[in-house]
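Researcher: Please generate the 3D structure of the following complex. Treat every line as part of one assembly.
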Amino acid sequence: MKQNIYDNDTFFKSYTSLRKTGVTYNDFVEQPAIKSAISTLNGKTVLDLGCGNGQFSKYCVDNGAVKVTAVDISMNMIEQAKHENKHDKIDYICTPIEDYEVKNQKFDLIVSSLMIHYVEDYTELIEKVESLLNKNGEFIFSTEHPIVTSRKEMNNWMKDEGGNKLHWKLDHYQEEGKREQHWYVDGVVKYHRTISTLINTVIQSGLVLEKLIEPQSIPSGLEKMPKLMNEKRRPSFIVIKAIKQND
Amino acid sequence: MKQNIYDNDTFFKSYTSLRKTGVTYNDFVEQPAIKSAISTLNGKTVLDLGCGNGQFSKYCVDNGAVKVTAVDISMNMIEQAKHENKHDKIDYICTPIEDYEVKNQKFDLIVSSLMIHYVEDYTELIEKVESLLNKNGEFIFSTEHPIVTSRKEMNNWMKDEGGNKLHWKLDHYQEEGKREQHWYVDGVVKYHRTISTLINTVIQSGLVLEKLIEPQSIPSGLEKMPKLMNEKRRPSFIVIKAIKQND
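Model: Done. Output below.
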């Protein structure tokens, strides 16, 4: 059973009201890094894995993509995407990534934003991505940084009595697997993987690693969300870009 | 001025008596990982950057290397190497890596064991390595893991009153540069770099990343040095392997 927290009503309401503020880690840290890694969208076919509300899919067509296939497990998210980011060059499809099947179609760019830490079988996913890329196609994904997913307990800032952050608590780094946490609702499951697993699996699939980004906030984020200064102390996300050199 | 702590008498005595025990992080964690990453030594020419006491250079000729050039900044180490690991297929050269010049000679394998965190200009070093590799040549190096070099203060295990390790203290991850510490003597300088810097610099030099290893202890290490269990909690080292695909 694939996890579908976005169709939990409590979670969905909290999540969408957060995202609507436009003042989030996504806006200032993760999305700028993903976008900076794309060589060009002009004339490209795109697969958006875990498209959420369709904001990034819409960004792709607004910047020259000729076709975007946008996939998400959550009917809530797909309905919101169809409502807010409808476009005749975007196909929204509601299915778990793991079950997504496509024949006789490949893509120039495959992007996945903060979805892969929910997927149990990382190797299978990466192999599927590799098989769906055109020659010279790009794969760019973000995931929670192993530094933040490793420790099994939550509340990972060590604080003094005044609530000041002293350091980040790190532990259990080599113990890959499930991490359960409370994020609006109890029992949200994410999967911790080491950096070497994240990278070696991509390379073993046949893709060529081009770049790693451990993003910090863009300047406007530091003004609007001062706590993003903490991204200097420990990275929340990692962005990996790889290329399919051979067909 | 390049740092040469190994020619400090106090440091050198402590360091050599530690290494002679054969019960070290090098023996059980770092060297097994380096060796596992080498495709073959048979018939290969090797450059050993930061060769220390020559143990690894000797391992190379014992396992089929036809010629090893072994470089170290420390006269103490080079003299020990010439004494303990002398071999007519090994040339020991005493010079800082940064000043090492060689004309009309390239290598099939370049290895550097736990030296690169002492080097200030990482980009220059990687570009030199790339220029010294034959086509299809391998570059394998280990360095202290960014998780352990990041925090500016030392004593990075958070302990309870009974001395039990609660978690690893992580901080200052994105602030690259000098970290000064006490290791037998005061003022040992190491350079912290993020994982993205370590990897992207290799890729930008033209080398192709093949593998990342965040090694744990081999089983015999856990018997002889029980504290190596802590390598599961946070990795001390990272090993990077890259290939020169084009000449």
